[in-house]
Specification:
11% helix; single chain; alpha+beta; 2 helices; 27% strand
Length: 241
């Protein structure tokens, strides 16, 4: 078979040009993100949590028990956004009690993102550790359910989960520095049993930014060569925590 070298060269040249154009189009308007592109997340858990967004670990509470604390982190949002949180009330794994097995603790979880995402009764919730069963403190025991390995995945099926229950601040009794952070509009949530359900997983899907603000999708940065980040506005005020 005879190969026309001229046609072959033109073919490969055309492919190279097309690839370059596609790359340029893909990168058009994409720049390196700056802190101004992030949203602030305030999270308070009684007593501990870890949080995934779109399948990636983004925050872990550094204090397992007390003192109570607020975890504030900057997030680079991508919508749709799947939030998955494992929250734990401090409890002995065998008895479900705390303070040397002398007390049944309570629980609670609240979250607010600066894009308007908040915890409320629309979130899904499921308990994976319950105890002491029937509130029996004389012969305490715990009932555990195996936690799925992919509980934080975007495509995890939570369709049969119940909605979370909302609780008031009086019912949860948050401690300082809770009042120093912005949780306006957010609700404390847990399962139906805030006293005996000790390990709970929450899931929530955010289709678009609740505040309606158009944000750049930076999720594909590894596949493009972005431009330099936009210059920071020196007159811009610091975001409230």
């Amino acid at each position: 078979m005879t190969i026309n070298r001229s046609l072959l060269m033109r073919y490969f040249f055309g492919m190279a040009v097309a690839f370059g154009l596609l790359t340029a189009v893909a990168a058009q308007g994409i720049r390196k993100p700056s802190v101004d592109d992030t949203i602030l997340a305030n999270v308070y858990a009684d007593n501990w949590f870890q949080m995934y967004i779109n399948g990636e670990l983004v925050a872990v509470d550094s204090i397992k028990f007390i003192p109570h604390n607020v975890v504030s982190v900057d997030l680079l949002p991508t919508y749709p956004m799947t939030i998955a949180v494992m929250a734990k009330d401090n409890a002995d794994p065998k008895t479900g009690m705390e303070y040397a097995n002398t007390n049944i603790g309570d629980a609670g979880f609240i979250l607010k993102f600066s894009d308007g995402t908040v915890t409320n009764g629309h979130w899904k919730a499921k308990s994976y550790s319950h105890g002491p069963v029937n509130g029996d403190t004389k012969n305490p025991r715990v009932e555990n359910t195996s936690i799925p390995e992919n509980w934080f995945a975007i495509d995890f099926n939570d369709s049969d989960w119940s909605n979370a229950n909302e609780y008031t601040e009086d019912e949860v009794g948050p401690k300082q520095p809770y009042d120093d952070s912005d949780f306006k509009g957010a609700k404390f949530i847990w399962t139906r049993d805030i006293a005996l359900d000790n390990t709970v997983i929450f899931r929530h899907h955010v289709a678009t930014s609740p505040d309606g603000k158009q944000r750049t999708d930076f999720s594909n940065l590894n596949n493009v060569v972005p431009d330099a980040p936009k210059k920071k506005d020196s007159a811009k005020k610091k975001r409230p925590r």
